[in-house]
């Protein structure tokens, strides 16, 4: 173990409050007078637990607070454009907490910039591109003897409090999370004006509660529109799951329970997956042994159709439902949740190898979805390869992986309405 790792461990053991969202990584004495909050995942004020902790810490220690809004990591320039637009007014809004506010690209966070920091707060990182950034900050803090705190502001229950291991399925994590909800529902900084992005997130949530929640039992139907569409706001931390939970949990219906199952249990299972499985994005290690065994068994099964990524993004498959899903992905940056499952299952069915299917699904997911590049994306794709699922009846190509087909869509939904809807989107956009 390196000196840095053993030091980190030592400080982790000395945590003042083990049940908190906040983790002290380094505890040093230094003579600098700034407390710097690196806002990397929670671009909001209401229930921004990182901001709250940084403000309190700076006040208690008589440090000057500086806030750096660190640009989100995006692969798609359109998604980055969206992010930048959404945080345009954030510096102005943050002025009430600090006079030193700046928007920074990731590579602008350097040793020089952090030179006068006494203490650094940073939002907790889970995925590789955020962990790489965090490691850079951690190395600077270590080399320059700066206090370092991470805060888990975008999950309801901190991941290592919810469970101390990688969970097998929603069933194994559900009670662990549910039994701790009461401890983490306190709200912070809610008496302040909303930023533009927060305001939009609140409008989307209000709209969902008023117009869609009563129909949430129909949310799988792609021809209807009864999901919340809140996922991009959660991704960028424009809204906290605590805010959403506190509003929905007071509505005592089966639909609100079903929604909270997705928002809290399914979403935090995804965080559990990427946190405890450092190979969450490696085809060879992301799913279960039974799934690899069954895929190995069927590796040479004949594929009736073989398509490439270019075929998908040019809507060139024989399947109108899949093509419609691709249109929703490319034109609208999203996809109905049931269609996401169908979409990824078809990529498995139509790729030369399982590895290629995994690569294509992850690449498309992370590039086109506005809510891509989140634990949910990696977990959703892994689910299609058996993760958090069980073995089903054996069949070609899929083996014991769950299979989905077009007949199911036709039986359950007015799926041709979905195709028409996406064709209309295409016409609207091409005009
Ligand atoms: C192959 C595949 C890929 C996916 N890729 C992504 C992705 O890149 N980003 C993403 O946020 N979600 C992803 N999901 C999960 C889910 O489909 C989306 O979260 C959901 O469609 C977002 O729409 P909504 O906010 O209207 O959902 P709602 O039904 O209104 O749900 C509310 C919130 O609950 C959470 N949630 C819902 N379903 C799931 C789920 N199955 N797993 C984890 N959390 C869930 C989301 O945060 C969502 O915003 C994927 C699922 C699959 C099967």
Report on this model:
This protein is of the alpha/beta class. It has helices at 3-13, 49-60, 77-86, 90-94, 128-143, 159-162, 170-178, 196-212, 231-235, 241-248, 254-276, 289-297, 309-313, 320-332, 337-350, 354-368, 375-384, 406-412, 415-430; strands at 22-26, 34-39, 64-70, 100-104, 117-123, 147-151. The protein contains 19 helices and 6 strands. The chain has 3 domains: 3-151, Rossmann fold (3-Layer(aba) Sandwich), CATH 3.40.50; 159-276, Alpha Horseshoe (Serine Threonine Protein Phosphatase 5, Tetratricopeptide repeat), CATH 1.25.40; 289-430, Orthogonal Bundle (DNA Cyclobutane Dipyrimidine Photolyase, subunit A, domain 3). It starts with a helix and ends with a helix. Strand 5, helix 5 and strand 6 form a beta-alpha-beta unit. Helix 14 packs across helix 19 (415-430) and helix 16 runs antiparallel to helix 17. It has a 6-stranded mixed β-sheet, with helices on both faces. Residues 219, 227-231, 234, 262-263, 266-267, 270, 337, 340-341, 344, 365, 369, 371-372, 374, 376-377, 380-381, 383-384 line the site of flavin-adenine dinucleotide (FAD).
At the fold tier of CATH, the topology name of the largest domain is: Rossmann fold
Distance between the termini: 60 Å
Strand order of the largest sheet: 1-6-5-2-3-4
Number-wise, the strands total: 6
Taken together, the total number of domains comes to: 3
In N-to-C order, the SSE pattern is HEEHEHHEEHEHHHHHHHHHHHHHH
- Helical residue percent band: 40-55%
- Please give the count of helices: 19
Runs in which pLDDT lies below 50 for 5 or more consecutive residues are 1-18
Largest sheet descriptor: 6 strands, mixed
Oligomer: single chain
Please identify the structural class as seen in this structure: alpha/beta
Strand content: 5-15%
Write down the Rg. 23 Å
Named at the architecture level, the CATH assignment of the largest domain is 3-Layer(aba) Sandwich
Global shape: globular
Bound ligand species: flavin-adenine dinucleotide
